[in-house]
Description:
The structure holds 2 protein chains of 2 kinds. By secondary structure, chain A is mostly beta strands.
Amino acid sequence: MRYILLFLLTLPLTLLAYSDYDMDGVDDKADQCPNTPFSDLVDIKGCTIKQLSSPHHFDVILGGSYSQVDYNTNEKTDTFSSSLQADYYYKNFSLQAVVSYFDSESASYSNTGLNDTFVAGYYQFKPLDALSVRVGAGAIIPTYDSGLNNNNLDYVGIASVSYAFSSMNVFGGYRYTLVNDDDYSYTDVNNNPVTIGYQNTNAYNVGLGFYPTQKLYLSGSYNASDSIYKSVEMIESASVYAFYNINVHWFSTFSYAYGLSDSASDHYASLRLGYYF
Amino acid sequence: MKTLTLSLTTLALLGSLTAATAQINVDTQIEAIQTASPQERVELMNQFKEQLSQMNADERTEAITQMRTQMQTRAQEHAGEGQGQMQEGQAHAQEIREQMQDRAQMGQDDNMNQIQGMEQMNQRHGGDQFMHEGPMGGDAGAGFMGGHDGAPHDGMTQPDVAIPSI
């Protein structure tokens, strides 16, 4: 009788002693899927049997940006752009489309219109808990009306990695653009033939980010890219970036880049507001 | 007027009653989850999640916060034995944090693409501007885009066909 009473007294404490990291009701010791999302229903082994939340998500991002360029061969130019980005997410896959409209002004030259349009698809995976890899492929649609033969679809390959530790992360990215535009030829005032040649570009960035609060992410990075023109030096810039999660749906981003080479924009600032659902 | 006051009072009472009932239901469910056997616990947890999915955002947040609070209280009461329950309460917060971090990371990637795309577009704009200000508009200096006046191609790769000083 004494043993039965002792058993009954210790039973509740025994039940309370279990550990359940993913909050699915299955003790971690017996949980064969220890990291199931909270929105998943699970079986006795702790593995997903049904997803309650839709695997389909979207976001729409509106943005405005300003850039000032002062190439040695051109007048100083201010460019204002507005952009609209839409993303579709399905599990680890995502699709993206970005359109933007620009207004460039210098002392004696002005130009307005659509920039090139960008569409891409991405796949994200995590080989390790702390390591995130995202790869993608896209196309640049020549919606910018140029006098320099911007007439063909360009193709883009993108890869980025991020390694998180504590409340920080290091990241890096690479982007290759296959520029298919035809070289542009003309005859100068002395009747000499001149050709402006396009080239494929390699671009990369490296940076460090951290999360000062749960809603805020800040980062700094170095960016470098080939020019699309064969004759032009590498474009280099240093940038800072902020992502603020306003609530479960709304978020905003701010970015500033400072040009480190003559071929880069001297200053670039961008503010965007997004809605995720 | 009296009828209107009566109706508003009835509505207020019904609202309070509904909120109180929901509170009791969540309380009851959490209590049941905490004391259930392993098999029942999984079933009850699934039911609780299904119920959460039917709630609006505010109700869901309230219910999850309540569960977290109760789990943490229990864990503190049984410190040393109930440490796992402290984790339990933190798991959902961790999940939300990871989602936010994923989105921030994707935003960071987008930012890289934006900056590189913007620079390429500015080069295209600059190319057109150069053609306008240079061959058509007079002396635009030596080199094409990013070169240095008087020092063509300084620091640059040589083009296949050199673009002359204009």
